[in-house]
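Replying to the earlier thread about multi-chain prediction with a worked example.

Input:
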Amino acid sequence: MGSREMRKVSSRLNVVTIPLLLGSLIGSPAIAQSPTYGVGRTPTAEELRRMDIAIGPTGEELPPGSGTAKEGAVVYVQKACIGCHGVAGIGGAAPVLRSERGADVPVWQKERILPLRSPYATTVWDFINRGMPLGLEGTLTPNEVYSLTAYLLFLNNVIPEDQVLDKESLPKVAMPIGDEFGKPHEFRLNAPRLKGYPY
Amino acid sequence: MDSKNSRRQLLKLGAALAGGMTVALRGKAQAQEHNHPATPGPENASPMIHGSKEQIEYGQRSKYVTSVRIAHPVGGRASPDVFGKTFHIATPLQDSVGVITPSSLHYVATTRGSYLPEIDPQQHTLTIHGLVDRPLTLTVDELKRFPSVTRLHFIECAGNRHTGQQKTVQETHGMTSCSEWTGVLLSTLLKECGLKSSAKWFVAEGAEEVKGASSIPIAKGMDDCLIAYGQNGEPLRPQQGFPVRMMVPGFEGIYHTKWLRRVKLVDRFYMNYNEFGHLRPEDKELALGEQIGPKSVITYPSGSQQLPGPGFYEISGLAWSGGGAVKTVEVSTDGGKKWNRAEFKNTPQRMAHVRFAYEWRWDGTETEILSRCTDDIGQRQAMREEIANWWNVPFERNYRVPGLDNSVMPWKISRDGSVTNGLA
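Result:
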């Protein structure tokens, strides 16, 4: 193809693609645009991996590693969880971690315990990882967090003692609450906080 | 310079020095006089406030102004606690004037009773990532290079509930405050990063020891969320998230993530620990744990204050709504039989306190004073009985209003002029 023909093709392309691009920009404001201000820098993949500690229900942010309730019982003593939360989650100054109510009591009538009432086991992992132990937050290894999560779920009869929790199995744990919890509504701007609620 | 000129200059200098000394001596004598006024009061000079480094560099209030914050609830967990941590602290609304809460008196709450991080702003960064085309890390100085906005906004803690056991308005309503916030709209930064259409929520996360995190709808984020670095004309206070915090105007306080280090764009609601605190059996009740309803309270006269006797009083209070701007405020001085339109002392703004007032002549009889408001999206503040009726539950004395309690607050005026909690 000669250079003159090339030019012809590219100019024909422009006639066609520019309106198309404009149309898609108007139709979908979220489409990629170049930065306006160009201030700041791109974080490295390693930086993002280290700070990406909010674990969503799919568990996609979970790190490699694994643990069981048996291992967790050991970590619970080693890391001094027992000092504040008491033996097997009861009797300490910190919040109770094991329900004392019977298996037949509905979960909403049991104590407000994270590894019991949480809709997702990922939230239990997330909070132990980001918030414990008090004063030494962020020091637990992934294996220790998997183990402690397994131990607390076992104490509340959510999983068996020998179940291995890891990136794959943790998000699949069936929590006692099932689907019996309020789901967030779709937030609308300049609308009452609850549809039909006058107050 | 010739010798005549230099002599003239020396003479000038000498005169200036002598003059300065005279002023200094006179100043000392005046200070002594001020410290011994015959009768303190407007006719006589009062004792002199001796200048100090602190007074000069960062002004202090009069020693006669002693209003301070207190633990919330009264008798609850102390701040600082035995570990030096901060939990819930209420602002002294009974002494408030205007709509700006002084930064030093702004209410404080933390995710679980947190350490206050001592963050070096030179070391701090804010990262935006997830469902964006270009993740972005900003230093605080870089954040300040973006176009800024300055807005008046209130913040209110979900624990701001009034019950019959409380005495003062600081105890009943002190977990709300209002400041002028300066920062960058989150939408400015999300556009800069190239927000993907698959982003439905974002997780805002703090840098304190527990890394408190909340899920916020993207529609709110693109509308008026604000990454604030300024409060009332100066940098944020550490208790308010220095160096940067997320403002989610009109949402419960916990969403206003302090010490903000990260915003992650995600495709679904993340059940963070903060969200676990909001967990409810029903969608309807969960919805009330987000945007705050219309609310008002009379701050003068309020609980534990004393009216000196019958006569003129300007009833004064604050009104706000998480849904928009306050539209009207009404005041009743007869226990809710007749409602009178109150006047605004400033222009109502979206998700901000407005100061209202109503001129009243107290005849010395026992009565109850109340306030109620509406906002510009059609919501109205209701009596507790009305709310119970809407939810179709029997009204009892200790009825708990679902979501953040925005019901009407009554103050009882006794014949001796004492003001007490009308819910007691």
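Chain B touches chain A through 74 residues (CB under 8 Å).

Feel free to reuse this layout for your own posts.
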